[in-house]
Amino acid sequence: MKQFSKILKFELKGYVKNKTFVGFTVFMIALIAIVMFIPNIISAFESSDGSDTPPTDLPVMLVYAEDETLSTLVKEYFANAFADYDVKAVKDSVESIKESVVTGEAECAFVMNSAASYTYYVNNLSMYDTNTEIANSVLQEVYRINAMIQNGLSPDIAGEIMSVQIESITETLGKDQMQNFFYTYIMIFALYMVILLYGQMVATNVATEKSSRAMEVLVTSAKPTSMMFGKVLASCIAGFSQLVLVFGTAILLYNVNKESLSNPLIASIFDIPVELFIYLIVFFVLGFLIYAFMFGAVGSTASKLEDINTSVMPITYLFIIAFMVVMFSMTSGSVDNAAMLICSYIPFTSPMAMFTRICMSTVLWYEIAISIVILIASTIGIGVLSAKIYRVGVLLYGTPPKIGNILKMVLKK
Fold first, then answer.
1. pLDDT for res 20
2. Three-class SS of residue 398?
C-alpha cells in the first residue's frame, strides 16, 4: 500500500507540473467563462453604442388586389405573419408598384391575381428570401376565409372558424429524449475524449519510462501491480479533476448568468438530474479504468515511443466502434435497439451504451445493476491481468511481441 501511495502521489505531481495539462485546463475554463458572459458583453456594447434609441423604420411591403375585401384580408394576415415589415395595402397600378420596388421605396410587393394566385415583386432576390414560403402558408388560410365570406358567412365568423386553437397535453411517462439529448451527447463526447486522451497518455508514459530504462529500476523496487494501479488511478484522478473543473465552471457561470442565458436549449444542457450525474460518475470511472488498464498493459510491451500508435490501435478501434454505435443510436432516436442492448452488458461498450439508455430511455433497475456488476468485475479482472502483462512487458525489448505470446508468458509466471 505504501508503494502504491508513493507512485500515485508521484504521478499526480507529474500531471500538476505538466504545462500542457494545466494550460489546457485554464484555456477551457477561460473559454467557457467568455462564452457564458457573451450575452452580458453584447448588452454592454449595445448600451454604450446608444442602441437604446428606438429602432429605425421597418422595410415596406406592398399588397395589391382588385377585390377590396381580398386586399383587406391579405393585408391584415400579412401584417401578423411578416412582423419585420411595414405591410401596406395600395390601389396603385402594377407598373407604379414595380417602380416603387425598383427605386427602393418598397422592399417587395405582392400583387394578387386572384385569391389563389399572386405575383411577387422584388428588386434583388436574396438567397435567404423566404417571403413566398410564408405567403403561401398564409394565403391558404386567406383563401378559405375569403371563400366563406363569398358564401355568406361574415368575416368575424369566418375568422373565428379558421383561427380555432387546438389544445393538447403531452404527458411523458418515461424519458423525454429531446430534453435529455444535448447533455447526454456532451457527456458521451467528453467521456470519449478523456478516455482516448488519458489512455494514450498512460501508454506513452509507460513506454517513455521503458525506453529510458528507468522501468527496470522501478520494477525491482516496486510491485508491478502497485505501479500499474498507481499510474492508472493517477490519470483517472487527473482526468476527472479536469472534467469537474471545466463542467463545474460552466454550471457555476450558467447560474450566475441564468437570466441572460434564458434559452430552452441551454437550460436543457445544464438541468441534469442528480441521479443521472451519479450514474455518469460511476460509468466514467469504471469505463476510464478498464481502458486505461489496457492502454497501460499495451504500452509496457512497446520498446519505443514510435510503436505506441500501432500497439494501441486495436483498443482505439474498439472504443471508436462503441462510440459510433451509441452516436448512431442517439441520432436515430432508437436507443433500445438490439445493438445497444447487447453493448449495455459488454464491459468495453457499456460505459457509454448503458449510460445513454439510462438518460434517454426507461431501463429497469436490475438491468443497470447487472451492467455495473459486470463492469466492476471486468475492471478488476483486466486490472490484475494488465498488471501481470505489465510485469512481463517491461522487460521485453525489440519487436513488440504478439498478444498470444505475452499471455503464454503470463500464464507460465
1. 78
2. coil
Compute the half-sphere exposure of residue 271: CA atoms within 13 Å on the CB side of its CA. 12
DSSP string, 135-196: HHHHHHHHHHHHHHHHTT--HHHHHHHHTPPPP-----SS--HHHHHHHHHHHHHHHHHHHH
CA angle 334, 335, 339 (to 5 degrees): 100
* Buried-exposed string 1-26: b where 16+ CB fall within 10 A, e elsewhere: eeebeebbeebbeebeeeeebeeebe
Nearest to 35 by CA among 271, 269, 193, 194: 269
pLDDT at 21: 77
Strands (E), 33-72: 60-65
Closest CA to 356 of 283, 248, 252: 283
| Angstrom distances, CA of residue 227 to CA of 202, 300, 379 | 12, 11, 16
C-alpha span between 287 and 349 (Å, rounded): 8
At CA 61, angle to CA 60 and CA 67, rounded to 5? 135
AA identity, residue 363: V
**pLDDT at residue 280 above 90?**
no
Mean pLDDT of the region 214-241: 71
Residue 366 has pLDDT above 60, yes or no: yes
Mind listing the pLDDT tens digit for each residue in 66-99? Answer: 888 888 888 988 998 898 899 999 988 889 999 9
Compute the Cα dihedral for 302, 304, 305, 306 and give only its sign. negative
Kindly state the helix (H) or strand (E) to which residue 131 belongs, with its residue range: helix 131-150
For 268-316, give the DSSP string. Answer: HHH---HHHHHHHHHHHHHHHHHHHHHHHHHHHH-SSGGGHHHHHHHHH
pLDDT at 47 over 70: no
Q: Which of 128-137, 258-267, 304-313, 399-408 has the lowest mean pLDDT?
A: 399-408
> Rounded to an integer, what distance in angstroms lies between the CA atom of residue 184 and that of residue 330?
9
Question: Mean of the pLDDT values across residues 234-251?
Answer: 81
- Tell me if 27 sits within 8 A of 247, measured CB to CB: no
